Amino acid sequence: MRVLIVLPLLFSLSCGWKIFHLGKFRGPKSEVSPSRAFPDLWFDQKLDHFDPTSNTLWKQRYFVNDEFHETGGPVFLMIGGEGKADPIWMEQGMWVEYAKQFKALCFQVEHRFYGKSHPTENSSVKNLVYLSSEQALADLAYFIRQMNKKYSLPRGTQWVTFGGSYPGSLSAWMRLKYPHLVHAAVSASGPLLAVSDFSEYMRVVRDSLATHSDECVSAVAEANKQFEILLRHRIGQQRIDKLFNLCDSVVDSSKNDISNLYETLAGNFAGVVQYNKDNRQFEGAIDANITIDVICDIMTKSSIGSAVTRYAAVNDLLMKTYDQKCLDYKYENMINEFRNETLEGATGAGRQWMYQTCTEFGFFQTSTLPTQPFANHFPVDFFIQQCSDVYGPRYNKELLSNGILRTNVMYGALQLEVSRVVFVHGSIDPWHALGITKSDNNEAPAIYINGTAHCANMYPESQDDPPQLTAARHSITGLLAQWLQPSARSVRFQPV
């Protein structure tokens, strides 16, 4: 069953962990083990950093790689996101190449409530109050303080944070909130502006499909028009059942069922766009070869049949890739899955991430933009209703609005004032619409990579990398070289 998980990814919003985008779990992944063992290590962490009367502790998971470290070298911290931390990142990925060059000690810290890092016994609403970006940042601050002691690091040791997607946001926010602990930060594909109606996501999806051809975008739009016509009568509904291999007939389905179906089918395209040609094979991504070109070749191949038949063919390709027997689009089934309070339950970490979107970020990738090709059947109210149905009536539009306001006030949204932070985005990635893609501040430059998708700069180098991606990585290397020198403040960044 493909169920609505809202982001990420945001993702998901995070790179190197299980990714959530638009509503689909971006997986599954096959297990890939690093060439050497990186055992689970555990850190005693406070449950609530903002209640001085609380002394409750829990075990937070982390990994360490000291292979490249030399005395006096910096410390690199890879920030975990909305999924299980993956030890494969301790020996692969561009941050490891930077660590080799700068002789860095490397840590990866798993985010509270994800993977094996369980602050509470379950994910009940009562316990999820301890899940927030603010608590996660404080976790990292206390981790840095303790590792400085544990490893007897010299005074003035420079810590650099790394993260992609939601952890990309956390990376920038660590430098903002804890500048005395974090010397510099690399923020890849990080959404910094919290917003409930993220309609711009589908605009970028449309524009990214258009990099293949305008014909592809037109075919998607025509498919949705034909889909709407089929929904109007029973024979057409029965054809939809068969075309899209639905687990339950759309005959007599509810409005929310239909919204969920539209959103799921749009998510097929949005997910492919978000990760288009990213070099994710090393971490076991089984769908890495499904690209914009692949799905647009299907959508523009008239010999397959009508536009809606081609739309179904894209769905069939993804279902086979993910080994799905049928497509469960029923709204109530989805809600029941998210009500499961078992940590890493049926939706993986979906319940936890949805809670963060319902209380802090929004990030709801809606259909409300008039010029997007997926029809307008999943507006922002559809997503807010899920918050109420999963967590209770208190989790409504007003709570979300207050949470988004708080997030933007607390972190500064797109106006955050920082130094020694580089913001990296790709033009194909829809999340760049909520990030900093231009900057007049040489102390906090932006690198915007034409033609690349979500977190592309974080993955290992490939012979297929476009030259602009290679240039971006070289620029990041240059920035780190500047920032890890005492005279960093006097050196100006030269853009790609």
UniProtKB/TrEMBL annotation:
A biological-process GO annotation: proteolysis
Xref: Pfam families: Peptidase_S28
Keywords: Glycoprotein, Hydrolase, Protease, Signal
Segment forming the signal sequence: 1-16
Molecular function GO labels: dipeptidyl-peptidase activity; serine-type exopeptidase activity
Family: Belongs to the peptidase S28 family.
Record protein name field: Serine protease K12H4.7
